[in-house]
Design a protein that fits this description.
The chain is mainly α. Helix content is 48%, strand content 4%.
């Protein structure tokens, strides 16, 4: 299965999080305690704070690899069609 990266603003606490569903974390399905809701981000939070520069680098790398893979597959497809056409001519 392929992986995805969701880029959102990292919240300071659960009340600010877009992945919060009432008193539950939608990412982990854990119950959010009052102290975590209004205090600091809990230790079990799966969100990783990262720098904008690193995120941009990761997204650019992924985009370049995706484009490279697309062109590789297209070339393989085209070569397969050419080989098939040559076989049919024989």
């Amino acid at each position: 299965m392929s992986k995805s990266i969701l880029v959102i603003d990292t919240p300071e606490c659960c009340i600010e999080c877009t992945l919060r569903e009432y008193a539950e974390c939608a990412a982990t399905k854990k119950k959010i305690e009052d102290a975590d809701m209004w205090g600091k981000k809990p230790d079990w939070c799966p969100l990783i704070h990262d720098t904008d520069e690193r995120i941009q680098l990761l997204l650019r790398f992924d985009r370049e690899n995706t484009e490279r893979e697309f062109f590789r597959r297209m070339l393989k497809f085209k070569l397969g069609k050419i080989e098939k056409a040559l076989e049919e001519e024989e």
